[in-house]
Each structure stands twice: as structure tokens, then as C-alpha cells.
Amino acid sequence: MHDPRIDRLAEVLIRYSLNVQAGQLLRLRGPVSATPLIRALYRETVKAGAHPLLRLSLDGLDEIFFQHANDDQLGYVPQVTRDEVEAIDRDMYIIADENTRSLSGVDTAKMAARRAAMSPMSKRLMERTALDQMRWCLTLFPTNALAQEAEMSLNDYADFVFAAGKLDQADPVAAWQAQRADQERHIQRLSAAEHIHIVAPGTDLHYYVKGRSWVNCAGDRNFPDGEVFTGPEEQKTHGYITYSFPAIYMGREVSGIRLEFADGKVVKATADKGQELLDSLLGMDEGARRLGEVAFGTNYGIQKFSRQILFDEKIGGTVHLALGAAYPETGCSNQSALHWDMICDLRQGGVVTADGQIIHRDGHFV
Q1: Residue 142, preceding bond cis, omega within 30 degrees?
Q2: With contact defined as beta carbons under 8 Å apart, do 98 and 141 qualify?
Q3: Same domain, yes or no, for 33 and 114?
Q4: In 3D, which of 33, 119, 58, 45 has the Cα closest to residue 88?
């Protein structure tokens, strides 16, 4: 039986999140497992008068590629892919894993090489977005594999996913617009700050944001959404942070992460599990050891860790700080093939000050 919430999600994504207009070219990417949502998004794109460019994928192809690709293949990016990055007006990507651990046995050096090869594409998409030449959105379609990762039944997970996107409300767009207005108040306070200090269990971290722009995320980039973020000054972060939840990279887990910073750079990194992967990713390039994003999660409809960063980084009452590439619109210039979000929970005893004044306590702005 078709779930009507899928149609509602597609309508919100096309009409609100991406604001698709007639004549635009929309690239629609996702696996066959997301067929119901892909079909609904395709329908809404055509109804909007835009041109859908469909890019379907099959589960397991990445595993085959990394198992057999040589160095030349790992570094190859076809011209048609480069052309697409310049041609598209909207970019819609759907997560719908059928096996979240399919890359667990892949050589980390191969993953790093491929990420480096594709880095110029990601950088160019970020640049075009910052120039308002393009809009992108990332969403998720519930699958059994993702439900199992979250330790839920498929039905419960679907309810969790749709509720996080406010699709259970009478007017989801109005709900997101209200959240945008609420987050704008926080941004006004944060924009006046120069020095942010986070204190939580295992964490005493300082970063600096003078002259940086904070971005209000309310359903128009990720869906679900709910965060405010910027990029810190590249050379000034210092102190240490302990991340509360495992960090997942291409299906592989690193847990118990503790990072120490000096002069903006990670100088010591330890993990209870996945130390080899952590070291490999930090060594990907020079920018991988610096922060490219600092953010507050503001979606209080998400309170459970689900092992899916699209949701987990939005958990109301947390902060996430990403190593690697920065978003140009924030004013941060850090460049890297890596962009790896990691989450610190502030809901029990966390305190954030801005220029010495408390702005966030126990998971809430004050």
C-alpha cells in the first residue's frame, strides 16, 4: 500500500526545499530501493515545469568498484560528470541503503583516493551554491537496513523519519518557516560573537567566528533539517573535544573519538574503535585536520541517535563540528577532500558561552 506521506514529502522537497521553477534542470539521484520516492519526485518535477535528469544507482556497485578498481580508475572522473555539475540548477540526492556495511571491508586508502578525485566536483557544487547559481537537497527514504541501524522496526523508523521532517503536521512548510524564524534569533546572537567556548563531559574547546556568516538551515538543504552553522577561523581553534556518538564514514564506524586542537589543527586524535580509519582520514590532506564547520543541532523532533548523520547532526541539544571542507558562504576557506561531521551531546551538563556570556545550556539556547 502506498504511503501518502511519500507524496507529501516529494511536494515539500520540490516546492519548498528546492523551490524548483519551470525550465530548470533538476538532477535526481538515488538507488532503486527509493523507487516510490523517486517516482513521486519525478512527478512533482514535471508538474513544476522543470526537466528531470534521472541518475539511478544499484546497491552493491560501490563495493564492486572498490574491490576491483585500479589507480587510474579510482582517479577518473568522466567529462560528462564535470559538465553536469555546471549544467544543473537543482540537485536532489536520496539515501536509501539496503546494506549499510557494504564497504566495511574496503581499503581505506582506496576510499581516500576516490574521495580526493571527486573533491573538485564537491568543491564546485559548493561554489555554485554559495553564488546562488544552484540549490541542492539531501533526504532519506526508509529501508530495512536503515531501520536496523537505528534499532527500530521499519514502520517505527518510517514514522521517525516523516515526523523529523514535520510531515505529520497539518502544514509542514509553515512549520519549517516557523523554525526558520526561531533559528534566525539565534543567528543574530551568534553573528555578534567572536569567541565560542564549549564545555561538556570530556570537552573544553574554543573556536573563533569573527566576521563569519551563520547559515539558517530549515528544510532547504537537508531534509529533515534543523541546524545553524558556520565555518571557524582556520588557525585559532584550541582545546579538546570528546564526541558522544560513533562517527560513521562510508559505512565504517569510529567510536570514542577525542581530538585535541592547537592553532586550528588536530594535534592528537584517539579512538576507542577505528583508530586506523581515523588516522587515515586525518592524513587525507592538509585541510582534513582542521574544522570546516561548527554547528548547533536544533531539531527537537529528533532525540534518538540513529547512526544516520542526516538525522543525528540535527538532534536538538547537540553540536557537530566537521573536519575538512568548509562551505564557502560561511567565509571559511578550509579546503579538503574530507567533510566528516562528528557530534557532541550537550543535553546533560553542556554549556556554551559566546564572548564569555552563556548562550546555550543543557541542550537549549538561553
Answers
A1: no
A2: no
A3: yes
A4: 45
Question: Is the same domain home to 333 and 254?
Answer: yes
* SS3 sequence of 202-267: CEEEEEECCCCCCEEECCCCEECCCEEEECCCCCCCEEEEECCCCEEECCEEEECCEEEEECCEEE
Looking at 141, 158, 193, which one is the last position of a domain? Answer: 141
Q: Which residues pair with 200 in a beta bridge?
A: 203
pLDDT at 115: 87
Those residues whose C-beta lies under 8 Å from the C-beta of residue 273, and which sit 6 or more positions away, are: 246, 253, 254, 255, 256
Torsion of CA 271, 276, 281, 285, to 10 degrees: 120
- Hey, CA dihedral for 287, 258, 272, 318, is it positive or negative? negative
- What 3-state DSSP class applies to 290? strand
Q: Do residues 181 and 99 both lie within one domain?
A: no
pTM, two decimal places: 0.90
DSSP structural state of residue 341: E
Q: Which domain holds residue 219?
A: 172-365
The answer on 352 and 296 residing in a single domain is: yes
Instruction: Measure the CA angle with vertex 128, ends 125 and 132; round to 5°.
Output: 135
Nearest-CA neighbor of 15 among 155, 124, 171, 149?
171
Average pLDDT, 10 consecutive residues per value, the chain (366 residues): 89 97 98 97 98 95 95 96 96 95 86 90 91 94 96 96 95 96 96 97 97 95 95 97 93 94 98 94 94 97 94 97 94 94 96 97 96
